[in-house]
Structure to design on (338 residues):
């Protein structure tokens, strides 16, 4: 790992803090404006705002510390779709359609030419009111800029908190599986820093996987289309498994099935790292904010997910939970197969 000297770290952190706070302010102004236009009010208790901001600052500190410790390149800290005029322009063009969908609660607005017969019922919708759901290249392209706007420019920083725990136990020629890899951006960041590790990404959306193969192709990365409830891999075939923002979009039984599949394909002693939305059990002060997210952004299974701690579900499945780390409005849960 390329460790950055402490003095240099503090100097180099200044432009990072400036960039992140500028993006946060811009996102707050944009979201406030959009809420007024769509008559969706958000009046949180001041204590919630303070709690959220303190968590945001802690996230930035951890991001800097991880980069300084060599877990990922310093340049990753400054790469964000919110600095891409092309993506911003495309998002702005798409926003009126998103608003219209949200106002009409039209969560079944997805491309009519798509064959939905191979997808589970819970997947046949648009999450977050996003155009095309997970069923188009356009959706895959706009996903990152959309979630960055939604999470105040902190989405990538939250995802990166998985990297230290995903690679802490990794050796050369290890096999790591990313379940629900989406458009492949995170896996590309991870794989590019570990060229001798073999990575596999799997996602239910063939459109997102096609995009990942073209946009984020690396020699040590393989992408598959598949359902996480029925993984197409042999027992004990991976040294580590990661999954980011998957479980809050699954109904209870589907979550249980995926936990069981993770246990099956992970090697004994292997590491499992899950990042997802915070829950009541680990972020009680954010309860009102988390509940608002469920309602405003069409997350139909998020409300129940909030009540079912990931840690408890993993223990019931047979995992040994090592720990939980907060990451702004998300959390990282680290576990091992016994």
């Amino acid at each position: 790992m390329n460790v950055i000297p402490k003095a240099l770290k503090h100097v180099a952190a200044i432009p990072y803090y400036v960039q992140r706070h500028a993006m946060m302010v811009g996102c707050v102004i944009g979201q406030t404006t959009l809420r007024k236009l769509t008559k969706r009010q958000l009046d949180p208790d001041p204590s919630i705002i303070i709690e959220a901001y303190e968590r945001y600052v802690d996230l930035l500190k951890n991001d800097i510390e991880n980069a300084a410790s060599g877990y990922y390149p310093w340049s990753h800290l400054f790469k964000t779709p919110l600095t891409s005029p092309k993506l911003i322009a495309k998002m702005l063009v798409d926003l009126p359609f998103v608003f219209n969908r949200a106002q009409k609660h039209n969560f079944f607005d997805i491309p009519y030419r798509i064959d939905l017969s191979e997808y589970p019922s819970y997947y046949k919708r648009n999450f977050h009111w996003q155009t095309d759901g997970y069923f188009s290249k356009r959706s895959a392209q706009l996903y990152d800029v959309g979630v960055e706007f939604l999470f105040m420019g902190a989405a990538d920083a939250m995802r990166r908190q998985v990297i230290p725990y995903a690679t802490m136990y990794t050796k050369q020629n290890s096999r790591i599986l990313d379940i629900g890899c989406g458009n492949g951006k995170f896996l590309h960041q991870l794989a590019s820093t570990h060229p001798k590790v073999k990575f596999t990404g799997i996602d239910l959306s063939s459109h997102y996987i096609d995009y990942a193969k073209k946009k984020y192709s690396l020699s040590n990365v393989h992408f598959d289309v598949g359902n996480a409830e029925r993984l197409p891999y042999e027992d004990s075939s991976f040294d580590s498994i990661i999954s980011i923002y998957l479980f809050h979009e699954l109904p209870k039984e589907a979550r249980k099935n995926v936990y069981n599949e993770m246990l099956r394909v992970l090697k004994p002693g292997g590491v499992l790292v899950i990042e997802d939305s915070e829950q009541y059990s680990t972020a009680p002060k954010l309860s009102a904010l988390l509940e608002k997210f469920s309602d405003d952004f069409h997350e139909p299974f998020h409300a129940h997910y909030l009540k079912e701690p990931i840690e408890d579900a993993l223990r019931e499945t047979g995992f040994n939970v090592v720990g939980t780390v907060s990451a702004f409005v998300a959390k990282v849960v680290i576990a091992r197969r016994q």
